Amino acid sequence: xxxxxxxxxxxxxxxxxxxxxxxxxxxxxxxxxxxxxxxxxxxxxxxxxxxxxxxxxxxxxxxxxxxxxxxxxxxxxxxxxxxxxxxxxxxxxxxxxxxxxxxxxxxxxxxxxxxxxxxxxxxxxxxxxxxxxxxxxxxxxxxxxxxxxxxxxxxxxxxxxxxxxxxxxxxxxxxxxxxxxxxxxxxxxxxxxxxxxxxxxxxxxxxxxxxxxxxxxxxxxxxxxxxxxxxxxxxxxxxxxxxxxxxxxxxxxxxxxxxxxxxxxxxxxxxxxxxxxxxxxxxxxxxxxxxxxxxxxxxxxxxxxxxxxxxxxxxxxxxxxxxxxxxxxxxxxxxxxxxxxxxxxxxxxxxxxxxxxxxxxxxxxxxxxxxxxxxxxxxxxxxxxxxxxxxxxxxxxxxxxxxxxxxxxxxxxxxxxxxxxxxxxxxxxxxxxxxxxxxxxxxxxxxxxxxxxxxxxxxxxxxxxxxxxxxxxxxxxxxxxxxxxxxxxxxxxxxxxxxxxxxxxxxxxxxxxxxxxxxxxxxxxxxxxxxxxxxxxxxxxxxxxxxxxxxxxxxxxxxxxxxxxxxxxxxxxxxxxxxxxxxxxxxxxxxxxxxxxxxxxxxxxxxxxxxxxxxxxxxx
Length: 620
Prior knowledge:
The chain has 620 residues and is of the alpha+beta class. It has 17 helices and 27 strands. The longest helix is centred in the middle third of the chain and has 31 residues, at 194-224. The mean pLDDT is 92.
């Protein structure tokens, strides 16, 4: 109960819903799945559309069939095991039963997570049969072998339903099956002693499991493309040195890497960030951040910082960027370099909390990211500023920019050997420029990075789980800018008409100067956040922390309510003047779950004591 009760409350709070039953049968299931996934080396996928991983080894699989032909095992025991197997196999095929085993919530990857129960049941049956192997005669063994062989032969005949199976899987399975049958038959007809039989079977079982393990590891490696250790650890020394120099900074801040290696780089390098890839997530906060340009769509497994704007950098306390090249962001200044990694500081970044222009009330968000950013910031500051202006290219390298998708290709007059396209823009005001490339389609889907080249500076951006919204750089009023967009390792790339935007830097600075006017200093320690503030009037302290019912708040040691802001964040209303807000986090339901757990233990102890006392009295 210590963990179960808080988990249930958390799921209810953050928008997790039961998966709807949309079909009778599970995806990609077919009649011979049990045999197909017990072939040696059988591996389909760990992702979507997988059929259960139920491999146990050929010898236990053979013994499990033999289990039903052992006379000394009672009929009701056989019936119980058979019923359990039927229920488990039916669960692999029927979507409703499949979801039931998984709490009516479909996993996004690693499907059929209860499938180990089938394998465990097979192993129990095999152990019972092995324990009575001396009772088996050669006729029953041959019958068992025939049934198993028929299953594998039918799988071979209908192998078109299992594209992941190759001839090597069938050959290996046939060879080992013959070995196990021959050795067991020799033991059954008293041609082998028990010690020799045990040693031979053990050797071939270990040999078989080793071969199967090789295939599984190879399949996982090919599917997930794990980085080599040298690649994974390559940046750690440099980034550790850069981030360790920030430990003396007592203010709360966030850091992000512009060329990420994983979705969890902040965990890998031990700093605070926004990006995350996990099944454990706050769906309400992630979906709100998605509306503001931090991509997190679908089930919100992914949340990404990259490819957003200066407004969101500063609003969400992104004080530091780590990059192997100049990020071309206004007011980001170089601090330190280690190896090929450089730390840049954002002088406009807010802290974890800031004071709003008036007591905060939610506003509606649309599907237009830049409009949401403008409306959100204006609502926080009480202003009506225009931040973004649409720019139209003066010149373009497209054949006909007015009609249909545009195509980037290898240009004869370009210094690049891969696809690129050039645009020319005129900048009216001091601006940070961005480009959005809708409906990107790469010829080479293995390489989907985008390069933005301006004034000899090359910046490379990922398109993996992020919006196709790229920083060009910051420029002064009256400047004409040539922008080349390139696509490494691709000879052609198509996309819809690019959308160029200019962030007005004067409006940007004005908005954040307004937010900085009311002082807020935030420190964190353990599960506590302390915010010292000076408010010019009655207003709200807005925290860019995910909302959770586990948070409690006090102002100057007096309990106050926490309001849910924009569905995913938190706001605390504060009076005019100086004060201190302290937030403390204890998972919602943890206290109640702990009490229920202790009461359960105590109740059982009392029941057991009474039962023992009663039995002692009867014995006397």
